[in-house]
Description:
Blueprint: H1 2-27, H2 33-44, H3 51-54, H4 63-79, E1 104-108, E2 112-120, E3 123-126, H5 128-141, E4 160-161, E5 164-165, H6 166-196, H7 204-229, H8 237-275, H9 281-308, H10 313-322, H11 324-330, H12 332-347, E6 355-358, E7 361-368, E8 372-377, E9 382-386, H13 387-392, E10 395-397, H14 418-434
Antiparallel strand pairs: 1-2, 2-3, 4-5, 6-7, 6-10, 7-8, 8-9
Helix pairs in contact: 4-5, 6-7, 7-8, 8-9
Amino acid sequence: xxxxxxxxxxxxxxxxxxxxxxxxxxxxxxxxxxxxxxxxxxxxxxxxxxxxxxxxxxxxxxxxxxxxxxxxxxxxxxxxxxxxxxxxxxxxxxxxxxxxxxxxxxxxxxxxxxxxxxxxxxxxxxxxxxxxxxxxxxxxxxxxxxxxxxxxxxxxxxxxxxxxxxxxxxxxxxxxxxxxxxxxxxxxxxxxxxxxxxxxxxxxxxxxxxxxxxxxxxxxxxxxxxxxxxxxxxxxxxxxxxxxxxxxxxxxxxxxxxxxxxxxxxxxxxxxxxxxxxxxxxxxxxxxxxxxxxxxxxxxxxxxxxxxxxxxxxxxxxxxxxxxxxxxxxxxxxxxxxxxxxxxxxxxxxxxxxxxxxxxxxxxxxxxxxxxxxxxxxxxxxxxxxxxxxxxxxxxxxxxxxxxxxxxxxxxxxxxxxxxxxxxxxxxxxxxxxxxxxxxxxxxxxxxxxxxx
Length: 453
């Protein structure tokens, strides 16, 4: 019996090796892009990693390198909050990219265009470009190493609580504490510098605007710091996705707030330059420019946020252009007023400070806005008239007169002799000629009429 077992034991070992190889082949299917990613996620997901099998999705010829690339790719994708979904990938083994006409598939074309699959000898492996890009991406995301924070805490912190390890909770607390410390320190430092050099500001408004910019500027830097440190916690891709989405919304939002407030500082600077010039055209342009810049900043910031949330901006803008006709019809008065304001700046029928008369109303121009022009009447009231109407109506610019006509009547007694009347009229003419601010080439002084008194 022992001799029989001795004889068949090599056969049993051979059959066992063949069975393991067959099981390994069944668990590694690289026949299509979706099958390759399914194989990779099956052996690299969860708490139990089978790097030897996940590494077979790479074809470098070095098993150790394949396993290292498989692990580093997982950490890169987790840090960026990118989740591999095999069901969304092509299942055709002969898939052909319509642009390059090659057996090539980019998994994350927007977020990570370097990560792709390519067909080699009838199987789909991670491409050569991916093999080169993964170590560089890993070094960029983990400049101090992915195990930097793990090595600081004891082994007892590896225990899990509510899906996270204890060291991850401690690490998150450390990152938040460090970020708050730097935020308040930076806020205090910048506030001190602004207060220290407040004497350089001409007005208190400049000082107040600059102080209002400090908080969003500091907050933007701290969010950047947290985003830089968060990958060392080695959170799952699904959890990192929430953090990445939050950062993608908060960072452009805070940046827009900082730039929006900075426009007020630029507005004060441009107003100072405009006051030094004789023309009042720039005095009209500065307020309008401030409003346009703020609208542009809000629109650009909104587009950045929508793009970060994976909205198709091109399709969205196309939809807007399709509905643009209906919008234009609904807002035709607003559009008319906008073009009316442009015509005012181009044609310049009046400027700020001019005395104008329109539609029976007299007053001084105070502001030419995006939609309307404001005129201060001589009764000290303010009249706002849409720029579209001003562009179509007759405007009498009394402020452009070189001379203002003075019209009056002087009554003389009926018994005044004619020669005295003529002498009096000639005396008035001499008086006008002697005045330095009167027009000498054209003025009329005559005996105008004979009345009852």
